[in-house]
């Protein structure tokens, strides 16, 4: 059994000055909350949900799962 | 070291969390404290970036998590793949702007994300590409011409790009893509690193893996994470290829290149000679010992095979290995008495033909254990070496040398013939399709598909069984059960 403490930092500096697609898509940086320092390696982040444990990533699009024939209740 | 993860069709950026969490878990022994195992070698921690190919939905209240929705259905739409590639390419430029010059990115892609990752090649900014359950050879759905062009361009990039590419495939357990499409085309013109590793042959995994599961299956994710960590310290594409081979080792690959093992010099008190017959060393207790087993020259053996439990041979062993290390040497002397003092047998290091880790399932339990899988301490090393032709009337011995700190593990070994057992059963049959229907004449149905076949084997430590009549271009999924003729020889095992 292993535990994880996921947190995702939105790279808001990766904006439309880099690519117009930044309007449509986003770039996240993973950090193991409580294990890794957010500030050490890179400059500035917009922290987002650092302690929202385990809840992210379970929300997959209902319609896309139906389309692929996957269970609509995510088991991830 | 930055890593960019590209999710697949209807995938989520959050799918990176299992691999990223494992990388953090391996790198840090406790919060904020890196493991000396990595820092002593200058290995840096990883920064996992992931693209969300969906609109981020900002929550209305702080309690709700951020979700991404309307994930791109990249498998069905070539232009969507192009847009994702353009975004990933800009993301790499952005990521590298945060790091010192000369940094490169490891790109990981799941499913169609692997196609996007391949589309980024050739690129001097990408140090390695690891794809998981990616249909490289042909698209899962061809609804537009654009997707065919992307695959055509990827084929050209895979043939020439200098960046090492490894494709991890789940095999028949992956119900989403055809297993054949997961195989990377072999580079023809250039010597570039391309590997396809099926999880059923991935040492330490030994089982098929589902399409989505490949990103979180523990046995796969910790190896992917470890390979990525180690890649950061490698300087050249060749070194990166060697790291991928080491941490995501396919059982069919050649044995790792041995270093320089200490030569074995015998002195009269340092070894024991075993009787003729198979080598069985159990309850290993001495801190170190050398045993000489005579080669049965009369039976003209061609190979020597040994199994080592809970130990390692030439650095090959389970990840969490005990202190047992075993080496094999081939010794010769013109004197038939191994104890004769002049001269003592001279011993040479024995390079294996193959060296692999195989599972050791418990007879009472299914394998792999449901919901648990394989532990990192599991696995038995199989050492297989060719016995060269005898020179004149020399006498030969196999020297087994081991060192151990605690009492555990065992070594068995024997000389075997090279001849495989050939079984001519096949899956063809004029009426094979009729076999699906009840009431058909069973005698016309191919046994291999419908009933199974019994292949008698000798009591050798290794038997090779060949099915030359099977289709060579089809993946075979099989189940093997052992039928013991008697309980002889198993007492006390």
Distance linking N and C termini of chain A: 15 Å
Tally of distinct domains of chain B: 3
Query: Poorly predicted ranges of chain B (pLDDT <50, ≥5 residues)?
Result: 62-66
Q: How many runs of DSSP E, i.e. beta strands of chain A?
A: 2
Q: Which structural class fits the helix and strand makeup of chain A?
A: mainly beta
Keywords:
heterodimer, A: 76 residues, mainly beta, two-stranded antiparallel sheet, 1 helix, 2 strands, 8% helix, disordered C terminus, B: 493 residues, alpha/beta, Rossmann fold, Jelly Rolls, 3 domains, six-stranded parallel sheet, six-stranded mixed sheet
Quick take:
Chain A is mainly beta and 76 residues long. Chain A is built from one helix and two strands; from the N terminus they run E-E-H. The longest helix of chain A has 6 residues, at 62-67.
Give a verbal description of the structure:
The complex is a heterodimer of chains A (about 80) and B (about 500). Chain A is mostly beta strands and about 80 residues long. Chain A has one domain. Helices cover about 10% and strands about 15% of the residues of chain A. A two-stranded antiparallel ribbon of chain A has the order 1-2. The C terminus of chain A is likely disordered. Chain B is an alpha/beta fold and about 500 residues long. Helix content of chain B is about 20%, strand content about 25%. In chain B, the strands form six sheets. A six-stranded parallel beta sheet of chain B has the order 4-1-7-8-9-10, sandwiched between helices. In chain B, strands 11, 13, 15, 16, 17 and 20 form a six-stranded mixed beta sheet that branches. Chain B is globular, with a radius of gyration of 26 Å. Chain B starts with a strand and ends in a 27-residue tail after the last strand. At the A-B interface, strand 1, strand 2 and helix 1 of A face helix 1, strand 4, strand 6 and helix 3 of B. Strand 2 of chain A pairs antiparallel with strand 4 of chain B, so a sheet runs across the interface.
